From TrEMBL:
Source organism of the structure: Musa balbisiana
Origin organism lineage: Eukaryota, Viridiplantae, Streptophyta, Embryophyta, Tracheophyta
Pfam assignment, any one: X8
Domain X8: 34-117
Protein name, entry field: X8 domain-containing protein
GO cellular component, one term: plasmodesma
Amino acid sequence: MAPRAESTFLSLPALYLALLLLSVPLARAQGQKTWCVAKPSSDEATLTANLNYACSQVDCSILQRGCGCFYPDNLISHASIAMNLYYQSRGRNYWNCYFKNSALVVTTDPSFGNCVYEYI
């Protein structure tokens, strides 16, 4: 009978914990402010789905005509604002800015003109 090889692998819970700790953004660990924005490479269908989902969960009235974030009136801008509202309202966890890998957590305030990206 052959000798049994000892397992040198971490247990599954320990591996999960290690991966979770490694995936926490450095900015969050350093206490920096963070925002969620759409990746520029995201396609129109994904951005539309993100916008619709986020606005079904949070108040997106800031995107209405006449409000501070209506302009520029384009999909990536509106999706970014809605995604950030969702991200902020859910506690700024990196997983709340995933949106099927179509978003980025940034440390530079994306606010512009009269449009202030919310930071809670």
